[in-house]
Amino acid sequence: MHSTTNIVIAGLGGQGIITASDILAEAAFRAGFDVKKSELHGMSQRGGSVTSDVRFGERVLSPMVPAGQADVLLVLEPSQVEINRPLMRADGVLLTTDVIPPDALKNKKSLNVAMLGALSSVLEIAETHWLAAVHAHLAEKLHRLNDEAFALGRRASASMPG
User: Fold this and answer.
1) Which domain covers residue 21, as residue numbers?
2) Is the CB of residue 56 less than 8 Å from the CB of residue 28?
3) 20-48 per-position pLDDT tens digit
């Protein structure tokens, strides 16, 4: 990765894009990075496109990921891959829900956290920071379910070729 790590999370309204970016930003902050975050909601209440940029590093000046500079593009909705692909750098990592085995999640609403688990396998942020951030942003009654979803995504991504 570069001195500033650029992540774009994309999907549709209601998929937990903003929650996922909040968790990522907090995990990076807990790991000691300077963090900036921005989001674009569009028609998110009606299932419209939603993106959120998270940038972290030693010192970050702008919250927006410049076009063609995303180190990682994490996409929760397949229809959003091609729309957002121009945001990725040529050697960037594309993470899609294909990494999560079908019907592996106990609750489909935890897909965003499972995808953060997948993301965690390509970033240098300790798992303890990720889980602390998940717990800080979700109700206690959801911790175990989301811990399991995170672990599922982490295992699934680590076992992918490439």
Assistant:
1) 4-158
2) yes
3) 999 999 999 999 999 999 987 665 456 78
